[in-house]
Design a protein that fits this description.
By secondary structure, this protein is α/β, with parallel strands linked by helices. It has helices at residues 52-60, 99-109, 114-127, 143-156, 173-190, 201-207, 242-258; strands at 14-23, 26-36, 41-45, 67-72, 75-76, 84-87, 161-165, 193-197, 210-214, 221-226. It starts with 13 loop residues before the first strand and ends with a helix.
Length: 259
Amino acid sequence: MTAAPAAAPEALEIRVEGVSKVFGAVQALEGVSLTIEAGEFVTFIGPSGCGKTTLLKMIAGLIRPDAGRILIGGRPVEGPGHDRSLVFQDHALMPWTSILRNVAFGLELRGVPKAERQAAARRYIAKVKLTGFEQHYPHQLSGGMQQRAGLARALAVNPRILLMDEPFASVDEQTRRLFQDDLLAVWGEERRTVVFVTHSMEEAVYLSDRVFLISPRPGRLVEVLEVPLPRPRADHGVRGDPGFTRLVERVWDTLKKLQ
C-alpha cells in the first residue's frame, strides 16, 4: 500500500540579529538585522558582491557569522538542518543517474524507504511539470528542465524553508517567467517560507511579499519594500499593473543611489 503524501510542514520564522561577516580583509556584511515571517516569500536584492549569497548561506547554516546570530523558529542556527533546502543557480544534478533518483536522493540519504521516496519524487516532478522524464538522465534535458529537477529535489525533502540563490539566472526570459509562475503556484499550495536572491528588479517585485534591498559591500540592509500586489500574481496580470511598474522603479531608484 502506498503511503499518503506528506503534508507540507508548518513554515518557520527567520530572524537575523546584528549579523556581520568578514572574509580575510573584506567585510562582506555589517550589522544586518531583519525578520522573515513564517510562510512569507521575500527577496534579497543588491549590487554584485553585496553579501546576498553570503547571508543566504548563513541562513542555510553553511557559513557562520562573525558577529550576531540567526534564529529559525526561535532556535539559533548552528549548521545545516532538515528544515531547510537550498537551490543554487547550478542545479548540481548527478549526471550518472536518472531524474527520478536525483529528485529522490535527499530522501535516500535520510534512509526513507524506496517506495516512499520515489512517490515523493514523482509528486514533485509532476509539480514542476517534468512528468514523463523520470527515467531520463540530466544530459537529455534542457538547462531549464534540469533546473526544474533541482527545484523538485529541494522540495521533495519537505523543507519548512526554501532558500534560492538566483535559480533562474541562466535561462531565457520566456522560460524564466514560466518558472516564476510555477514556483509561485507551488508556494501558494504549501506556503513554505521562501528566501530568494536575485539581481532582477522585476523578478524581485513579481515574486515577493517584501523586497530587502542591500547596500554595496559591506552589505547593510538599507530598505524593506512592501509589495501589496494581489495574488495569485499570474491570475491578476500583475506585470501590466501600473503599481508593479512603480515598485520596480522604486527598487531601481534606491539601487542607483547606492552605486
